[in-house]
């Protein structure tokens, strides 16, 4: 490392430490990974923080201003794993590389410091490495811009090239962040406090950048230059906040990628009215992409995902998160799924080919950012090869519109595919510096270098045979030593012939010894140089060819991206068809009416869980169409009977239909749902001073203030978090507001049986209940939803099933009976209620529960019915009766 040492000695700061401090000063908010040979090293506070976060040893190395310097380090080849750990813990990393070798530094002087600089800032929204990303999910970097009374949100995935923007009011920021789940959000300096509460709810890291990044005028120039266009008008009409948000993303990428911008696609403008509006609480309650525990398992996405490509999986999540409001889009998507369900042979062949498709988008992005390698070249080759296979398939019938469009994107890659096929071996190494990825026969100069590198002795032997034949001297040898290198040696008796024309024109005299004469030739000297440099030469040629192949790919990057998109479209259509066939889902009819008629609806996640335990799922109908049918169902019945499942399954069926999927039902007719709202479950937010009831009221308020007449609302147990009459009043008023003001389609589950009276007062409200049966004091859940109201809640029975002590259950029965009798008989029962230990100043003794073995049960356990004669059975019956009376 030459003078790359840390100890300052008498002179104070060493040149290397001065270099480190100078670079660190430019990135005060990031951990500086300072490259020293085969390690990234960190010093001072960075070392202390990194050692704790990474659980690695903290040591000391050298001194600075009289104090020892804390230091820790990680191997450069394993750095990606450490990056991921630090990013997840909220750090940013500045990667500082050596820009020259120590040998090159020494040329400037023995004490010269190796040139270093930061080549990349690693942040949550700018990751591209496969090891740092979930292949089946997008990794969005978002930017939120505000200009006076207007605002906009832009987002990009630099690992796939996606770039989008939309106008967005502040009130819609939370729901959109919930939909996109970006890994990082850029905001203008000074606005962090205003947005922190919204962003914290979503768990999105906030990054403040200079206000100049959001300046719409400079932003428009910046984005236009990126796409080599004269103005943004080439891609559509963008407002000032939209241009500012796009510009902030590009500016941030220039900063973090140090000028190596990713291959972004031209910006696509999205309209808020184009997709179903789903707020954050609803996404969480319905567990669309993550379960309530936070993982992917148990979510709707995990349950329905049958995709076999990374691109198809990302497209599925995108559509599941953003169900469409455009009938033509929905119907085209459903046509694609219908085709694949009908043409099972075509679908099977397609899926077999799709299984071999690598992640084209991310390979393309890494190549553009110069973070790729030979395997990314091979990924492009393999992906385009499978695209060609799909394009050449003889489909059984005409493809629907979306698949027909996608098919065109699979074609036209012959030239690039031919080049990559010819140039690359089947399984290239990870890194270009390892070499060995160019196929034999592709480049003559490379083949020669490899031959010299690998078969130098054979080449020299061949030259020796050539010279023997040319001179006729059978004793001629080619030898090597460290002084002369390669030379031709012959005996002294042949010296005159070798030094006389015509041989002297080829052979050059070098040395004469007592018995031997040594010569060389121009060809041998050149061959010697080639052999000695063959290894390095071969590697340099491969690197040059790598750059050539990478350039050829990037020259047609738009076509490669189009092929990737087309492959994802085919994969998703096949995956949804596979799901529909295996799970017996039906094609929904989606129209512009207010229909909502589901026959035999099922909850896909619950059904999948029950299947594992061998239990059937009980399907149920739902009709909220209005007209002759009510638009609001008031659902009563006990806990554990399946009310919440019924509510959720109907919301999920609407969502699946509008994302373009078949649905878990025997039939479904759905008028477009503009908004989906769910208030299900109980949770608190103690960090912000919100009780469970407060959270419930905030979410209910959001629904009542936003829901329109095309919304679908599911509400479960509104008002249960407060006193009985307060809760009943709130639930009653909420249902009235939904019916009279919002006019939404809704499912409203409650334990307030008093509310069932509303069905007789409001034309749009109908009672429904989940049926149960009682048998010998136990409750049996049938999970069937039928018209009518429940007469009781069976809470005590459910408590018994949950395992409450028998004494508690018996005491609850006594209290419940007294309360119900008091309610029926009014003041006449006041004395009885006052006498109940529940209300009395001094509690009465707890009912005694019999302990010890039950003789009746013991006797029954001994009985084997199949072995009894009729007479024995009759005798046993008398015996059991006597035991019971005793």
UniProtKB/TrEMBL annotation:
ATP binds at residues 637-644. It comes from the Bacteria. GO terms for cellular component: cytosol. One of its GO terms (biological process) is mismatch repair. SUPFAM superfamilies: DNA repair protein MutS, domain I, DNA repair protein MutS, domain II, DNA repair protein MutS, domain III, P-loop containing nucleoside triphosphate hydrolases. The keyword DNA repair applies. NCBIfam families: mutS1, PRK05399.1. Belongs to the DNA mismatch repair MutS family. This is DNA mismatch repair protein MutS. It comes from Shimia aestuarii. The lineage of its organism: Bacteria, Pseudomonadati, Pseudomonadota, Alphaproteobacteria, Rhodobacterales. The gene is mutS.
């Amino acid at each position: 490392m030459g003078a790359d040492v840390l100890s300052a000695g008498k002179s104070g700061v060493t040149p290397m430490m001065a270099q480190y401090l100078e670079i660190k000063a430019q990135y005060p908010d990031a951990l500086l990974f300072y490259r020293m040979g085969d390690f990234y090293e960190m010093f001072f506070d960075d070392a202390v923080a990194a050692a704790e976060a990474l659980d690695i040893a903290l040591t000391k190395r050298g001194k600075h201003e009289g104090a020892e310097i804390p230091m820790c380090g990680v191997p450069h080849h394993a750095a990606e794993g450490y990056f991921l750990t630090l990013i997840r813990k909220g750090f940013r990393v500045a990667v500082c590389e050596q820009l020259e070798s120590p040998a090159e530094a020494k040329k400037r002087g023995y004490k010269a410091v190796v040139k270093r600089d930061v080549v990349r800032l690693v942040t949550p929204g700018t990751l591209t490495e496969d090891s740092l990303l979930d292949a089946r999910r997008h990794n969005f970097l978002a930017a939120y811009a505000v200009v006076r009374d207007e605002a906009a949100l832009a987002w990009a995935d630099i690992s796939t090239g996606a770039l989008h923007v939309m106008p967005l009011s502040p009130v819609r920021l939370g729901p959109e962040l919930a939909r996109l789940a970006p890994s990082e959000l850029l905001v203008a300096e000074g606005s962090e406090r205003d947005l922190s509460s919204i962003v914290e709810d979503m768990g999105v890291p906030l990054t403040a950048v200079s206000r100049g990044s959001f300046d719409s005028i400079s932003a428009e120039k910046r984005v236009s230059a990126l796409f080599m266009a004269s103005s943004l008008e080439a891609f559509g009409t963008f407002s000032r906040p939209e241009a500012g948000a796009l510009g902030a993303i590009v500016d941030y990428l220039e900063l973090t990628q140090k000028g190596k911008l990713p291959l972004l696609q031209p910006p696509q403008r999205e309209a808020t009215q184009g997709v179903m509006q789903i707020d954050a609480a609803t996404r969480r309650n319905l567990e669309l992409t993550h379960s309530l525990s936070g993982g992917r398992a148990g979510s709707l996405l995990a349950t329905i995902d049958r995709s076999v490509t990374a691109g198809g999986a990302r497209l599925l999540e995108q559509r599941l998160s953003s169900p469409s409001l455009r009938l033509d889009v929905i119907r085209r998507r459903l046509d694609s799924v219908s085709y694949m369900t009908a043409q099972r042979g075509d679908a099977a062949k397609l899926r077999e080919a799709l299984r071999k498709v690598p992640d084209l988008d991310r390979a393309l992005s890494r190549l553009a950012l110069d973070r790729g390698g030979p395997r990314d070249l091979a990924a492009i080759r393999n992906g385009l090869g499978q695209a060609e296979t799909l394009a050449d398939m003889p489909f059984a019938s005409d493809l629907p519109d979306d698949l027909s469009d996608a098919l065109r994107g699979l074609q036209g890659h012959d030239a690039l595919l031919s080049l990559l096929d010819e140039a690359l071996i089947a399984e290239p190494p990870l890194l270009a510096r390892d070499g060995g990825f160019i196929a034999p026969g592709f480049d003559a100069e490379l083949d020669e270098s490899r031959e010299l590198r690998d078969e130098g002795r054979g080449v020299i032997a061949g030259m020796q045979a050539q010279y023997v034949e040319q001179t006729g001297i059978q004793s001629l040898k080619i030898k090597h030593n460290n002084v002369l290198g390669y030379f031709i040696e012959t005996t002294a008796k042949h010296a005159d012939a070798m030094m006389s024309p015509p041989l002297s024109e080829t052979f050059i005299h070098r040395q004469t010894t007592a018995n031997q004469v040594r010569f060389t030739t121009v060809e041998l000297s050149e061959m010697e140089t080639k052999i000695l440099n063959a290894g390095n030469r071969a590697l340099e040629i491969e690197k040059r060819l790598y750059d050539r192949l990478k350039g050829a790919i990037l020259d047609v990057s738009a076509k490669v991206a189009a092929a990737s998109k087309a492959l994802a479209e085919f994969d998703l259509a096949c995956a949804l068809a596979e799901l529909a066939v295996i799970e017996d889902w039906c094609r929904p009819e989606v129209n512009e009416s207010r229909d909502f008629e589901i026959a035999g609806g099922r909850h896909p996640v619950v059904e999948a869980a029950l299947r594992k335990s061998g239990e059937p799922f009980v399907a149920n109908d739902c009709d909220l169409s209005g007209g002759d049918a009510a638009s609001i169902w008031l659902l009563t019945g006990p806990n554990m009977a399946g009310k919440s499942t019924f509510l959720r399954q109907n919301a999920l069926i609407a969502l699946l239909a509008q994302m373009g999927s078949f649905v878990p039902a025997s039939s479904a007719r759905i008028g477009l749902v503009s908004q989906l709202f769910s208030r299900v479950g109980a949770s608190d937010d103690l960090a912000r001073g919100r009780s469970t009831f407060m959270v419930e009221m905030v979410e209910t308020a959001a629904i009542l203030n936003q829901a329109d007449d095309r919304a679908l609302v599911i509400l479960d147990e509104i008002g249960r978090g407060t006193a009985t009459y307060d809760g009943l009043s709130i639930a009653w008023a909420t249902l009235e507001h939904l019916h009279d003001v919002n006019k939404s389609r809704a499912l409203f589950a409650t334990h307030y049986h008093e509310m069932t009276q509303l069905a007789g007062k409001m034309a749009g409200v109908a009672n429904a209940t989940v049926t149960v049966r009682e048998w010998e004091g136990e409750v049996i859940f049938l999970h069937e939803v039928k018209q009518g109201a429940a007469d009781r809640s069976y809470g005590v029975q459910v408590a018994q099933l949950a395992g409450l002590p028998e004494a508690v259950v018996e005491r609850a029965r006594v209290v419940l009976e007294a309360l119900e009798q008091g309610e029926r008989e009014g003041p006449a029962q006041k004395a009885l209620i006052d006498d109940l230990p529940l209300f009395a100043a001094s509690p009465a003794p707890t009912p005694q529960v019999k302990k010890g073995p039950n003789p009746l049960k013991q006797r029954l356990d001994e009985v084997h019915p199949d072995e009894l004669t009729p007479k024995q059975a009759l005798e046993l019956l008398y015996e059991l009766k006597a035991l019971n009376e005793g």
